[in-house]
Amino acid sequence: MSRLYTENLSVGYGERRIVKQLSADIPDQQITTIIGANGCGKSTLLKAMTRIIAHQEGTILLDGKQIIKEDTKALARKMAILPQSPESASGLTVGELVSYGRFPYQKGFGRLTSRDHDVIDWAMEVTGTLEFKQRPVDALSGGQRQRVWIAMALAQETEIIFLDEPTTYLDLAHQLEVLELLQKLNQEQGRTIVMVLHDLNQAARFADHIIAMKDGEIVRAGSCESVITPDVLREVFHIDAAIGKDPRTGKPMCLTYNLVKDESTVLHAVPEERIPVSAGA
């Protein structure tokens, strides 16, 4: 049994249900990506699992306990979240922003201890942001700022990190920079990473486990090979996709796709020996 999972979870706003009777396991010490069309409930699921928003039905359990009953600071020592659009850090230096990650451990007047300072410096060193410690967050590039927000999440010293579209608004190089950092944290420190991604090939390349959602429900969850398939992508995104193999990683790769207009017209997976060597390079 996974440490974190949901059972028959329903989440909504008013009378409208966004997530419907959803049961999902988050594998420990692996990278899980959640994919699906806009409005399918990906971000809503993330917010519910981190208790940012309330759920109406079902349960969310972490280490056998319902998160709704957990003390806020205790829960913040177990999981961290980087939202899709982090709040403005205007006027803060990098060091000041990262120090906010120590909030769950502060007592009394909230003064930082020597232990807190050590963790803050470690988080910035791991994310390659220590050299920016005294610089204003606003003066950094998009990729640098994203690494600083990740450093703040790391400063919480949680074993589980949630990220909602961490590559949004970043160019290709900065997207790869952020995803490789998350992969490194998973592989070297055993962090459980859960993130929403729009790019299917990035999801397949970096994930150990993928959850494909449609209309608030799970269409399929499992390995990249079992989820990134023409049938699943047809159902989830309403596209007719040709799936091959990434020549660098061996992971499944969406080579091309069309919108589904005629159900009688279907592209099939491209045989490996016919995939151009340059694909995905």
Automatic annotation (TrEMBL):
<keyword id="KW-0408">Iron</keyword>
<dbReference type="GO" id="GO:0005886">
    <property type="term" value="C:plasma membrane"/>
</dbReference>
<dbReference type="InterPro" id="IPR003593">
    <property type="entry name" value="AAA+_ATPase"/>
</dbReference>
<dbReference type="GO" id="GO:0006826">
    <property type="term" value="P:iron ion transport"/>
</dbReference>
<dbReference type="InterPro" id="IPR003439">
    <property type="entry name" value="ABC_transporter-like_ATP-bd"/>
</dbReference>
<keyword id="KW-0813">Transport</keyword>
<dbReference type="Pfam" id="PF00005">
    <property type="entry name" value="ABC_tran"/>
</dbReference>
<keyword id="KW-1003">Cell membrane</keyword>
<feature type="domain" description="ABC transporter">
    <location>
        <begin position="4"/>
        <end position="240"/>
    </location>
</feature>
<dbReference type="InterPro" id="IPR051535">
    <property type="entry name" value="Siderophore_ABC-ATPase"/>
</dbReference>
<protein>
    <submittedName>
        <fullName>ABC transporter ATP-binding protein</fullName>
    </submittedName>
</protein>
<dbReference type="InterPro" id="IPR017871">
    <property type="entry name" value="ABC_transporter-like_CS"/>
</dbReference>
<keyword id="KW-0410">Iron transport</keyword>
<keyword id="KW-0547">Nucleotide-binding</keyword>
<keyword id="KW-0406">Ion transport</keyword>
<keyword id="KW-0472">Membrane</keyword>
<dbReference type="InterPro" id="IPR027417">
    <property type="entry name" value="P-loop_NTPase"/>
</dbReference>
<dbReference type="GO" id="GO:0016887">
    <property type="term" value="F:ATP hydrolysis activity"/>
</dbReference>
<dbReference type="GO" id="GO:0005524">
    <property type="term" value="F:ATP binding"/>
</dbReference>
<keyword id="KW-0067">ATP-binding</keyword>
